[in-house]
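U., I forgot to send this yesterday:
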Amino acid sequence: MPVMENGQHRDIMGIRVAALGWSQALDEFARAIDGDGPQRIFNFLNANNANLAMRNPKYRQGLSRSEVLPDGVGVDIASRAFYGTAFPANLNGTDFIPALLVHSHRPLKVALIGARPENLVRAVEGFKAATPWHEFVAVSDGYFDRADSSKVLADLAAINPDITLIGLGSPSQEIWIDTHIRQGHGRVVFGVGALFDFVSGAVPRAPLFLRNLRLEWVWRLMIEPSRLWRRYIVGNPVFLFHVLRYKLFGARRQAALPV
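Result:
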């Protein structure tokens, strides 16, 4: 299990989640990218991902072998239930990844894997427009043969990136990262979900006032109801049930209860 230098973590239903403010998180990234330590892998935990972790051991294992950042109001609810306070910052990848690229003044080589081919191309263009001092390389869209990832991995190793962003969706991306990503595939690796779709403009972000109210999930449900209704309409109550069960019974009895 990787350990952050400041040691600030919280147990969210058996998943170790970093409790960092924005400046602390950006400093942590700077240490990861500029230090001489081992490769570091970061993933994000939101309510939907927590639900997935309750029923998918391989996904949970992938999270346990990475450093996990808090994403969204759901994990804040869980943190308040378990610790009496929300996380210091909402470090969702859609905001945090662009912020850390701006924060890094040293030119970096950034590799991208995932999304539809056209969205991947536009995401590279969007990243270049926002932070032109970095080099962005589209390694592969998200539709390569997962049963044989050798070419994608070889291309990634040939680039030898500072940062690798992998957007294959959860739980696929975390499992793929845990199974395939090794030293030489990126000094720092992030599982970024739908980030490329947002950066490309294929999926619009919620208006700022909704984001400030922590209601971006409502916006996403409105624009993609057929794809996301189960995640939010069903998934949110299921997540709250898991939070309540974990609070009442704790980790040991949680493991013995049916999911």
